[in-house]
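[step 3/7] fold_predict: job queued, chain A
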Amino acid sequence: MKRIGLLGGSFNPAHRGHRQLSLAAMRVLHLDEVWWLVSPGNPLKDAQSLAPFEARLASARQAARGTRIRVTDFERRAGTRYTVDTLRALRARYPRHRFIWLMGLDTLPNFHLWKEWRELARLLPIAVLPRPGYDAAARAARAMGWLGGFVRPFSQAKTWAQWSSPAILFLRLPTDRTSATDLRALDPNWHCLDPREGTQRHGETPDRRRPLARSSR
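[step 4/7] structure written:
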């Protein structure tokens, strides 16, 4: 049995914040691996704002290099669009693994909009990753009206594999203010880079990276 943390997202692009929080969660939760589930699309986001899937997947692989973070295109291969369906497929595919869903604090205020969000919480325990500036909104989230009855103390973090779901844990970890939104604002064409150099270097600013020569086509 492996203890696996699942972090889903657009990774548009992946950056050092994803990496640092994943590694910190790995230590606190005693995880064997963290899997980054790079999503082909997000039903709650504008598809036009997404870079091509292959560029986002490459940026995630670059950011995860040299760690026990595994980058996967499982959602694309499984043909799932919603997280709850992805988790069902993962549990069916890997019945011997124990999974915990890693969710950013900034997503909690909109969690009640996710498809079958209560069923998702019944499938796996949830560990919430800190994000600066979202504490009040997350605690006041509509979903917390129900999830609030299943909060586990941080002191029990390493025992999560023994829990029954629903269960939600707020992780106390160092935060990183790097954001994909800010990186895109600095360089909207971040994905137009030479793939031999990697599409994203753990949140480095774009001026440190060499652009790919544009085709005339």
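[step 5/7] annotate
Residues 195-217 have pLDDT under 50 and may be disordered.
The chain is about 30% helix and 15% strand.
exit 0
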